[in-house]
Each structure stands twice: as C-alpha cells, then as structure tokens.
User: Which sequence fits this backbone?
C-alpha cells in the first residue's frame, strides 16, 4: 500500500487533550432518572423478561432524544461517551440490569459475548489461572489495547477495585497517524492479514481461527480491528502461520502508540462507558482487589449491534458473521448456543 495518508476528523484525538474537558460526559439528572425508573417499573408490570425489553418497550420520552444524539456522536463523532450518576448503590440488582439493558437498547441490539450465550457479561476477577483458552477479562491482569466483536461496547461500573484497574481508551485514527509518522513500514504491516484465536468458540463450519486486518480503509472510513490478544494467542494453533519479526514489531508499536496517546480513567460506580469499536481502542490496567467479595471490582458489559452502523471490510465476516449494514451483526455464535441473561457472576462462565 503506497498511498497511506493522515486521517482527520472528530474520531482523531489525543488523550491528553480529551482529559482537559468533560464534553465527552453526560450526567443523568433527576428527570432522567425518573424516566429510567418509570421504564423499569413498566417492564416489570408487563412481566417482560429482561431479554425481551426493546427500545420501544423501554420508553424514555425526553432522555431518549438525548440518547439519539449521543449515539450519533459515538458512531460519527468522537467515538465514545461516559454516562454518569446511575444510582447503582440505591437500586436492587435486577432493576440495575433492567435499566442497563434498556439504556443499551437505545444504542443497539445486544449480541452474545461468549459460546455460552451470555448477553450481559459480569466482569470480575474469578481468581483462576489464565490458561490458553481463558479470557483475560476474568482475571485481574492488565488487558492490552484491543477491539471487541461488536459495533458498540458498553461497561457499567458497579464497584471499582481497591487499587488500579484503570480503563484506558485511545483513538485508532490517532494511533494510525502516529505510526505513519514514526514507522510507515510497520503501518503497512498493520494493513496486512493477521490470524486470530477463537479460544474454542468456533461457529458452524468455521476454523478455530479467523483473519483480520488491524487497519482497514473503507471509502471515507478508517476501520480498526485491534484484535491484538487474539493474534498472539493464535500462535498456539499449528494451522496458523508464525508471526514474522516485522509483524511482532508492528504489534508492539501498535500497543506503545495506543498507550502513549490514550486517555486513562477510573470508572466509578454508576458510570457507563460506551465506545465505538471501529474507531476507539480500549484497555484495562492491572488491579488489586478487596478480599471481601461484596467489595470487589464488578462491571457489567454489553456488546451492541447497531442498525445504522458503518460498512465493514469483507474479511471481518469471518468473525462477525454478517457485516451488512442494517443487520444484526457481531457477537459470538456457536452451535447449540442459547442467548440468555444471568443476573449474577457466579453463574457466568465460558
């Protein structure tokens, strides 16, 4: 590729600049919370299972208008937002999950996050050793910068860790530009094909690995598919070609640039982080937790498919299934799976 170019636009930002203001934050006020509470009550009165709640049944007459604008900013603008002051310390768990799910439905349609079919992920330290098929998010270890297999990823913080566990986000376009300026040969490598591990979550008639390009040009869009952890893990598979030194160097530069340009922050209880996975990378720092289970770091995750999202590169169909705009796409789908919601983390497993 000989025509690499600097990418510009609202999705191109530097962490230190983002940290100087809070224009990326939206704070729930008393009226917003009353609307959310009323919507939760309505779904319970109608005996709606959480999984059956939709944007239409989770009615938010005023707040919904704000969510439409916020979704536009996520998909076409900066690429992320943090919603603040959901009173998770005051509500029972089922109402929290109903509210989170209902809010999520205003931004997209939830898709399964693992082979078991969980539509809401419980992010805690399960205090188990990290084997070759064990996801890092189930430990307290640092997660490198990466993308998820969905249009928008959501995290709701119920409790922060005792120490550490900062979330960090970075503009993929800014990372692209930095590598272009510092080592264009490595950027060209990041436009080439890499192999990724499915961690045993293999769709029907698919192989235990899939292919991606980290950077992809689609007309007016620069789409990033930063599956860095999956790329390194795939090296355990015999069918996968060994990474070259150039590829290893490019992946390390990708992480260094992401860290250098990132916006680190601690998610507080009641905050929801929403990121556009095609334009924003995210990571997590190592954390030390409280010994008491009721105090330990605890987040809820949503993977959302948006009907008004961008066109995606053909190669991403290997991971996403459908990539067509307007269809339900992304997530993890395997034979025998039944998508469902678990209210508590003790029933959450791969």
Assistant:
């Amino acid at each position: 590729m000989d025509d690499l170019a600097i990418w510009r636009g609202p999705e191109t930002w530097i962490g230190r600049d983002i940290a100087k203001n809070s224009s990326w934050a939206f704070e729930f006020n008393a009226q917003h919370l009353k609307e959310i509470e009323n919507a939760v009550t309505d779904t319970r009165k109608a005996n709606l299972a959480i999984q059956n709640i939709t944007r239409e049944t989770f009615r938010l007459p005023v707040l919904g208008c704000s969510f439409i604008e916020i979704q536009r900013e996520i998909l076409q603008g900066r690429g992320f937002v943090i919603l603040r002051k959901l009173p998770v310390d005051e509500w029972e768990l089922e109402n929290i999950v109903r509210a989170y799910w209902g809010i999520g439905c205003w931004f997209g349609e939830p898709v399964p996050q693992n082979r078991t079919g969980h539509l809401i992920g419980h992010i805690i330290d399960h205090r188990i050793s990290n084997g070759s098929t064990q996801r890092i998010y189930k430990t307290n270890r640092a997660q490198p910068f990466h993308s998820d297999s969905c249009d928008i990823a959501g995290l709701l913080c119920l409790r922060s860790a005792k120490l550490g566990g900062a979330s960090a986000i970075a503009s993929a376009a800014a990372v692209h530009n930095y590598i272009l300026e510092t080592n264009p040969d490595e950027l060209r490598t990041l436009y080439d094909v890499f192999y990724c591990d499915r961690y045993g979550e293999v769709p029907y008639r698919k192989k235990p690995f899939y292919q991606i390009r980290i950077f992809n040009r689609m007309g007016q869009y620069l789409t990033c598919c930063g599956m860095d952890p999956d790329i390194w893990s795939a090296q355990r598979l015999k069918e996968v070609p060994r990474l070259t030194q150039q590829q290893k160097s490019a992946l390390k530069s990708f992480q260094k640039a992401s860290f250098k340009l990132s916006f680190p922050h601690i998610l507080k209880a009641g905050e929801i982080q929403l990121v556009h996975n095609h334009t924003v990378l995210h990571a997590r720092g190592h954390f030390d937790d409280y010994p008491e289970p009721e105090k330990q770091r605890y987040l809820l995750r949503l993977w959302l498919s948006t009907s008004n999202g961008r066109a995606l590169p053909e190669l991403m169909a290997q991971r996403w299934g459908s990539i067509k705009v307007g269809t339900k796409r992304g997530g993890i789908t395997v034979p025998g799976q039944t998508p469902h919601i678990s209210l508590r983390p003790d029933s959450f497993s791969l």
The two ends are 39 Å apart (CA to CA). The chain has nine helices and 17 strands. The mean pLDDT is 93. The first helix runs from residue 15 to 18.
